[in-house]
Write a structure and sequence with these properties.
Blueprint (H helix, E strand, L loop, with lengths): L17 E3 L1 H11 L1 H19 L7 E18 L1 H14 L14 E22 L3 H67 L5 H35 L6 E3 L4 E2 L7 H11 L1 H20 L6 E13 L7 E9 L8 H46 L1 H19 L5 H35 L6 H6 L3 E2 L6
Length: 464
Amino acid sequence: MFGATAVAAQTAAVPPGRPLAFDEALQLAWRVSGQVQGARLDAEAKQLQAQALERLDGPALNLTGFAGRVKTSFDLDLSRVAGAVNPVLGGVGPVLPGPDLPPVPNRWRTERVVDITSLGLGASWPLYTGGRLQAVQGLAGGRAQEAEAERLDAQDKEAALVAQRYFAVQLAQRAARVRSEATAGIAEHHRMATRLEQGGLIARAERLRADVALDGARRDEAKARSDLEIARVALDRLLASPQPVRPTTPLFVHRQPVGALQSFVDAGLAHHPAWKKIDSKREQAAQALRLQGSEHAPTVLAVANYNLNHGKDKAVEPNWFFGVMMSMPLVGRIDKAKTREAARLEQQRVEVTAEQAGRDIPTLIEKQWRAMEQARVQFLSMGSTLELSQEDLRLQTASFQQGQSTSVDVTDARLRLAKAEIERTQAAYEYVMALARLLEASGQPQRLPELAATADIVLPLEAE
C-alpha cells in the first residue's frame, strides 16, 4: 500500500528511456509545440508592426527621379485678328512697293520636344490629423497586446496537456504492473487448483473456474499494457522526442489543501490570460471609436519639394516649393454616423464580455478546486479499502488451501485488491489533473512543478 508519509521514488531497476522531470517536459513542449510557437511568432510579428508605426506622425522624406522626353504643344486661335488685319494687309500691298505681306492665319500651332532628367526631394510632416494617426498607432498596439495574450493562453493550455499526458503514463504504468501482479497471483492460484484437483481435493468445476479467472486476468493485463503503449506514444509525440521519454516526477497528493478557494479566485481575476485579451480588445475598441470620431477633422501637412530639372531646353528649369497644405472631408461615400455607432457597439460588446468573464472565471476555478479536493479526499480515504483488500486476499488464500473457500472467492479477492490499487492511483491522477486545471484557470500553470516538489504523499515510480 502507499505510505502515509512521503515515499521517495524507488526504482529496483533503471527503466529505459530519456529521464525527464515535469518542468523539463513543460519547457520542451513549449519549444516544440506548433500552437505555442505559432502564437509566439504572431505576437512578435504584431509587436514589430506596432513598432513600425511609432513614427507615423513624424516627417517623411522621399527622393524621386525622372529621365525622359516631354512633348509640349501650343495652339492659338487668331481668327478674330486675321479677320481684322488681313483686309488691311490686302489694301496695303498695292500701295506700298516691296514684297507682299503674308496674311495672318486663323490658327497658330507649335510643338516642342524636350529631353528632361530630374532629381527631386519631397518632404511632408503631419502637423494636425485630429488624432487619426494616434488612433492607428493605438490599434496596432492593441493588436500586439492581443497576440501576446494569445501566446500566454496557448502556453497555459499546453501546460495542461503536458500534465495530462505526462502523468497518464505513470497511471498506465501502475495499472499494467497491478494487472501483471494479478495475473501472476491468479496463475499461482490456478497451479494450486490444478494440484488440488489432481489430489481429488476439489471438484473439476473449481479448477475450470480458475481457468476462466486466469484467462480474464491475462486479457486485463494485455489491455493495460496496450493502454501504456498508447500513453507513451502520446507523450513522446507531444514532446517530439526522438527516444522514449521516462517521466521522473511521480504522481503526488497533498495531505492538506494547497490553498484556499478564494486565493485561487483572486489569482484568476488577476492573472488569467482572458483579462489580457479583454484589455487589448478594450484598447482596440477605444481607438476605433477615436478614429471614427475624427473623420471631419482637418488634416494639416507641412510640405516641401525641390526638383532639379535638367534639359537642353532652357524653358525647363529647376523649381522648388514649400508650404502648408490643409484638407477637410465634407461629403463622403461612407455613412460615418453608422461607423461611429458600430464602434460604440464594439465597446459595449467588450464590456459585456468582461462582465461574463468576471462570472465564468471564478465559477471555473471553484469547479476545479472542488474537483481537486474531492480527488484528494477520495485518495486519502481509500487507504483503508486497500488494506482491507490485502487482508481479504490473505484470508481467502489460506481458506482455499484448507478447503474452506472456493476458487472464485480467491480470484475475486485478488481482483478486488487490483481494483483498489488502480482506483487509488486513479484518484491520485485525478488529483494532479484537477490541480493542473485549477492552476490553468487561475493563470498560474507554472506552479505545478513547485507544488509537486512540496507534496507530502508521493507514489513511487514504477520500475519496469
